[in-house]
């Protein structure tokens, strides 16, 4: 192996420590940032994410709120929970855990969140603000990935970036952020022709596909920086473990740097969720925003 393994876990701990420092400062003014997480149903993978988020919210000194609804909750029921959180002055961030059960319209639900409290950055207002280079709430996973890239590479201007996956929650906002950093961006997906050739052009390769170990060493330009967003549960020897969308061993022998799974982008997502909640709280209260925690 030749690649540097990017320690997202350690970086995320530093981001959380910064957030905690700002939260302590706000407390002296009598302000406690509040993050509300809305869960519909009992998706087991979601439960882990929610538990980790809850623990870290309290750790940085924020107020954590959880609203659980049964899997068969109706749209009006869910919308009324969101309306109450929008109106609650103790709540500065609202996250509705995705995916929602199929009978609920996710776009409608997300767009019911007050954009100022939309710490996922999924509301159409925030998507539009990001796309036009205006101040927005930036989706956590792309924001965390960008922080790792800037820390490692500094100025990203002129670099070839290839993002594999075009979801609204990862691929598209990741491409927007890289474009704003003056990368030459290619957004690849399931209809992309000659995907290995496209990937081999990349100085920065971001994998957000949801296919275990799809991207292999011979798809990667020597020295490239590889960000593996994928979180896939696979069965091996009777146990489940997490693997990314990147075949770590073969890619690590070619790449210049790579994020591991677990311990890469995942912890950064949670750290950025807390950073976004802090940013939202400062904006709502008309206070100066903390530096270095936004895109
Ligand atoms: N680390 C973290 O914090 C987070 C990790 N994740 C993980 O990231 C991964 C992606 O998540 P998400 O964006 O929500 O996934 P989606 O399923 O919403 O999107 C997957 C994307 O990958 C594309 N794709 C699927 N198969 C192929 C293929 N064979 N070749 C090329 N492209 C393909 C799809 O293309 P098309 O549009 O053409 O169908 C689609 O654009 C998952 O593993 C998820 O668990 C997600 C969020 C946060
Ligand atoms: N509205 C919404 N916003 C999201 O951001 C969102 C979502 N819904 N639905 C689910 C996906 C997935 N996601 C993860 C975040 C952190 C880890 C994470 O912390 N992973 C750790 C540990 C994982 C473990 O060990 O279980 C790691 O990779 O090291 C994983 C996955 C956010 N998502």
UniProtKB/TrEMBL annotation:
It comes from the Bacteria. Pathway: One-carbon metabolism; tetrahydrofolate interconversion. HAMAP family: THF_DHG_CYH. One of its GO terms (cellular component) is cytosol. Residues 6-120 form the Tetrahydrofolate dehydrogenase/cyclohydrolase catalytic domain. It catalyses: (6R)-5,10-methylene-5,6,7,8-tetrahydrofolate + NADP(+) = (6R)-5,10-methenyltetrahydrofolate + NADPH; (6R)-5,10-methenyltetrahydrofolate + H2O = (6R)-10-formyltetrahydrofolate + H(+). The gene is folD. NADP(+) binds at residues 165-167, 231. This is Bifunctional protein FolD. Catalyzes the oxidation of 5,10-methylenetetrahydrofolate to 5,10-methenyltetrahydrofolate and then the hydrolysis of 5,10-methenyltetrahydrofolate to 10-formyltetrahydrofolate.
């Amino acid at each position: 192996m030749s690649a540097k393994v990017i320690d997202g876990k350690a970086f995320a701990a530093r981001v959380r420590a910064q957030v905690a420092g700002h939260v302590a400062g706000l407390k002296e003014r009598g302000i406690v940032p509040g993050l509300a997480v809305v869960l519909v149903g009992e998706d087991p993978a979601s439960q882990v994410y929610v538990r980790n988020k809850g623990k870290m919210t309290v750790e940085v000194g924020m107020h954590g709120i959880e609203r659980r609804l049964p899997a068969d909750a109706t749209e009006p029921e869910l919308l009324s929970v969101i309306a109450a959180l929008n109106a609650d002055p103790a709540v500065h961030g609202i996250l509705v855990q995705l995916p929602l059960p199929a009978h609920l319209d996710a776009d409608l639900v997300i767009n019911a969140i007050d954009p100022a409290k939309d710490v996922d950055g999924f509301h159409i207002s925030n998507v539009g603000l990001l796309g036009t280079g205006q101040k927005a709430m930036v989706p956590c996973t792309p924001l965390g990935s960008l922080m790792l890239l800037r820390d490692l590479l500094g100025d990203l201007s002129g670099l070839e970036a290839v993002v594999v996956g075009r979801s609204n929650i990862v691929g598209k906002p990741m491409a927007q952020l890289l474009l704003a950093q003056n990368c030459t961006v290619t957004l690849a997906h399931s209809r992309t022709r000659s995907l290995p050739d496209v990937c081999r052009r990349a100085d920065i390769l971001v994998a957000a596909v949801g296919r275990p170990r799809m991207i292999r060493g011979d798809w990667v330009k020597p020295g490239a920086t590889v960000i593996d967003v994928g979180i896939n549960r696979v069965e091996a020897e009777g146990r489940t473990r997490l693997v990314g969308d990147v075949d770590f061993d073969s890619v690590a022998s070619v790449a210049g740097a790579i994020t591991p799974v677990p311990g890469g982008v995942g912890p950064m997502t949670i750290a950025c969720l807390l950073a976004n909640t802090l940013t939202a709280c400062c904006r709502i209260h008309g206070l100066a925003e903390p530096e270095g925690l936004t895109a």
